[in-house]
Amino acid sequence: KRILRWAIILNCINILSALLIASKLSAFVIVLLGGILGCLVMLPLMSTAAMLTHHSKVEGAIFAILMSIFNLGQILAGMAGARLFSLIGLRPLILLAGFIGLAGIFFVEQLELINPPESSPHFSLE
Question: Which conformational region is residue 67 in: left (phi greater than 0), alpha (psi within -120 to 50 degrees), or beta?
Fold first, then answer.
């Protein structure tokens, strides 16, 4: 949960960093760092999805479904953002997106990760 919380905070910082764009160079640096932060945010999310599906006998299918739901959420959020842009403008939209993303911390607290899988250097076939 701690890693997920940090991932959400990093994602919020990544979103709010768009407010700092002042020139082409700053845009390049922010997009470059944002891409790296985006990868760092995806790793804990995918790891948590893998933990939630562990020992379910259909890990691959459930993981694919969870990631498909995530992708659908990204598409719908992009469409909603496009609609909101025309209504409220860019700066308020960036602030709103950052704080809505930060609200994900409350959902992390609802996760029950009782027995996370043991990290082992070898794989065993059961």
Answer: alpha
Query: Is the distance from CB of 49 to CB of 76 less than 8 angstroms?
Result: no
Question: Is pLDDT above 70 for 123?
Answer: no
| Spatial separation of the C-alpha atoms in residues 121 and 60, rounded to whole Å | 21
The half-sphere exposure of 47 on its side-chain side, counting CA atoms within 13 A, is 16
Express each pLDDT in 20-62 by its tens digit: 989 999 999 998 998 888 887 788 778 877 777 777 788 888 8
Contact by Cβ (8 Å): 8, 104: yes
Q: Quick one: how many helices (H) and strands (E) in the chain?
A: 5, 0
Q: Are 116 and 38 in contact (CB under 8 A)?
A: no
Backbone angles phi, psi at 18, to 5 degrees: -60, -20
CA–CA separation, 107 and 72 (whole Å): 18
